[in-house]
Amino acid sequence: MQISVLLNSKIQGLLILMILTSFFQEVLAHTLFDVPQVTELKKSNNNIVIGHGCGGSPVIGTSIVFPDGNDSVITAGNDPHSGGISSFIQNWGNLIQLLQNRSVFSEQDEKLDANGNVIGFWSGGGRSLAANLNAHIPFTTSAVVFEPESCASSVRFAVAIVDVCKITTIANFTEDAVSLWVPAVGSKYDGVPGSHAYDSPAFFTVNRDLESSPLPESCGGNGIEVLVKPSAAQVDRDMPILYNGTQVWPQP
Ligand SMILES: [Cu+2]
To answer: Of 2.60.40.2230, 1.50.10.10, 1.10.10.60, 3.40.50.300, which CATH number belongs to 29-249?
Structure first.
């Protein structure tokens, strides 16, 4: 009798622990995409979902960099691909459009590459985001068109995101100053191996529409999964936040 009571309370305790654990995992999810996968030729209404603060510190801004496809690090299946993204996607570039919304932060703008294509965006300022809450930074993606002659069945983009909680230099990045959701490609924003979310970028995947754009016969029915990471040079160039032409984060 005693033992079964004891056992019961232990099981209850375990259950409560399991519920709490899953609750905290949900609340403390990393920053990611609201819609992480889209189908070729379809637009998306999407959001960056800011998952939590930097430790206990509120988030005061966020900076997002998509691989530009020019000097990106591309793997096709298990093989490195040196030919650029146009081998797999016909129209990569300028498919992202930031939507104005000042409900989370007061300022925002897009980031452009040398050709004027949107390759990222930032939002910051205002009254900050409580460390225990989530927030949406809305944007859209336009229709992606696969290269019909390629064997790519999906293209997965590793998107570099930094949530900023304190404005510091890169040398003073600590876990209560920034949350780094950045692919470890050797940029100044890699963070430290073993730290929270090291090499855990947000992934955005475009799946080929195999009905309207079937694989060529030469692929033998085998689609290839393509992974695209931004180069270290691109992350270093595009991650800083410029406000009216002046870099406001990180501190130079
Ligand atoms: Cu996290």
So the answer is: 2.60.40.2230
